[in-house]
Amino acid sequence: MRVSPSSPKSSRDPSRESLSPSALETKLANSNEFSPSSDEAEDQAIRLVDASDDEPYADAFAKIQRCQEILGYDFQDLDLLRSALTHASGASNRLASNERLEFLGDSVLGLTVCEWLFNEYPEYSEGDLTKIKSAVVSRRSCGKAACKLGLDQCLIVGRGVTRNRSYPKSLVSDVFEAVIAALYIDGGPEIVRNRLKDWLADEVNLAVDTQGSGNHKSVLQQYAQRELSATPVYRLIRETGPDHRKMFLMGAMVDDRSFAPAWGNNKKDAEQRAAANALAELHGNSVPYDSDQPPV
């Protein structure tokens, strides 16, 4: 079943209006953990890539506010969000960075995606679900999702990262996991679940298409018997080519419904592809194999 992104329900508390940058700065300034003393403000280890020497924290508040807008969520604990956005290079010490939250976020992300796949794809085996989950929670996928959301623009880094340098994917994938952990702590699992289903829908669909079961016939049979009380059958529609290089066009039928056929180098391969096409149509997806022309 192809997952369609849906806008997460807003969890903004109407009784808590979004803070203006000045109000946000005031709230953070009252925090013991992040409030610099008057003597140490200019030498504080936390630095932004675009912060001026005169106002080293000016952009941090804007980044925190922007991140809340991206997430569609107002944090009760702004220090928690700041920690999630702060790379080790921009923290006063390692414990003040997002590394601990990244540790938690990795597990929250994995559990949430596992539950999602378990409920959404009952016809897939444990091995297939494991392959799909690994692709969805990979650094590549998390980095891609983070950049698409704009979390890379909210990242707080130190002086070692130059203003014009583009962030490596590993850096933004880490902040993605840290933000997930911060949302989990501040808002609970439902807040995380709703947002991940929106942010990672494309990645799940891609992983299902590329990492799912190689035995499409088996998956189609299980699905058809469970959902349609029918057993798939396959028919030869066309064959072409010389004897030593025959190509076969096979189509799947389930309960008198015909699905887009597919070409293969032999009947077995063509049936597998035809089953993949049938599964795609049953789940409302575009078919992965062309039936118009045999493959070259």
UniProtKB/TrEMBL annotation:
Q: Which SUPFAM superfamilies does the UniProt record give?
A: dsRNA-binding domain-like, RNase III domain-like
Q: Where is this region: Disordered?
A: 1-43
Q: Mind telling me which InterPro entries this protein's record contains?
A: dsRBD_dom, RNase_III, RNase_III_dom, RNase_III_sf
Catalytic activity reads: Endonucleolytic cleavage to 5'-phosphomonoester
* Protein origin, superkingdom: Bacteria
Q: Which PANTHER family match?
A: RIBONUCLEASE 3 (PTHR11207:SF0), RIBONUCLEASE III (PTHR11207)
Name listed for the protein in its UniProt record: Ribonuclease 3
